[in-house]
Amino acid sequence: MSRKSMVQLIVCMLVLSLCLPAGKEAAAAPGVRPVSVSGGSAHGIAAWSDGTVTGWGYNKNGQAGDGTSINQYIPKKVEGLSGIVQVAAAGSVSFALSKEGEVWGWGQDYSSYIQNDPLLPNQRRGGPVKLEGLQQIAFITTNGALGIAVTKDGTAILWYPSYDPPGVLPVQIRYLKLPAISGIKSALINGNDALFLTKDGSVKQMSIYHSYYNRIRLESDPVSIATLASSAITGMAASQGELFLLRSDGQVLRWNKGLQAPSAVAGLNNVYKLDTGFYRLYTLKRNGTLWKSDYSSGTLVKPIQIKKGIHISNIWGSSGAFGFAQDKDGTLLGWGDSFDTGLATGRGSATKDEAGYILAPVLQPLVFFVNGQPFSFYGSASVQDGKLYVPQTSVFKALGVQVSTSTSNPDPKPGNSRSTVWSFVYGDKTLQVKLSDPLEVSVNGKKSDREFTMNRLPDSTQLPLEVICELLGIGLQWNKVTGEVKLGN
User: Pfam families annotated for this entry (predicted)?
Assistant: First the structure.
């Protein structure tokens, strides 16, 4: 390399280092980027460039994929999956497509109950289930009840759970070939209809429900195909009966059964990609700006730009009131108008913009080490106001910390009331936290001014791990880029 080339290279590296945004502690691990993301009613799943899958959020049916029915506030790796190139979620189900063309499902109807688990007797769930009737698949989509798989030869297969016999998990899956349309690129389900985007840019509509017999159509039922657009369509998204099409010139079209043909949406041009949430349309413009439109009132309201000054390279939707975006540096962002469990951005860790919306990095999955050894637990950790919290049934036993609760003696000042007292015993130190007003913290009977905040999430009391370790003298190192949490001395 010549001296001139070397100087140019050094200058380029310096410029790049100055351009990298600060404060992206929750970004994906170096070199690993999201390739596909999807959200259900209140959970999210992501496929990464290394072929792994993470899940998080509301998890009562096992849809987060961690093997439990415990809500997961921080993403966890879905075990048993590799080489995944696409994910799809809706409602309380999740699906993953591998590069080999195989499909896996988990969540409602797919995750079996595991009885008599010694550590989690009533909340253990089975892992991903392979959908044996789907092979050589190139694309998948779901509405939470049904799914459509597009094969590598451009045809489609409808799949759905059968409840005969009832009460058995995972349920039997039925498959229905849809050979009437060929050359399919992608598909979606909108109400009782399947919509297909073909490789030549046309959009076809086909009913997948027999209204007279009140059932999903059979292969023997007559097929009626309608063409909604004949060419130039590059993307589509749908929710709650509304279909949105992206034309190659960047114009967004809207269609529902009250319209004879798709019509252009005013103000939505120069669009690069679109997706939907619950009565929401998300659009990414070619200049990297992110926009949101509501249509819960039946009228598509004027688009609102989300968080000005940030450059987005990709977006994904959900069946809930939130979505996901990828920053130009590869960071996966969650966004919405409330701190839903499906966001996994950490409560209090991000503020709303001038339009009232959150746009913040999805938290990095955590990997715990106790005294140098990898350690995992069933419950969910959380991050609140940038601080790390864990449930009682997590790392404390492995660290040798005895945790217990008791009730204080009557306090005459507030009318002889009693308070809950948490005790943490480690070696020769005893940390006690009296949940009075104000809260009282003491170590070996000596009062401490250290702030101690306990957070109660919908299914878990979360304890401030960093504060507890500090007061008990336990070492803690949390690498917010890699997600490694090293505990012990």
Answer: RCC1
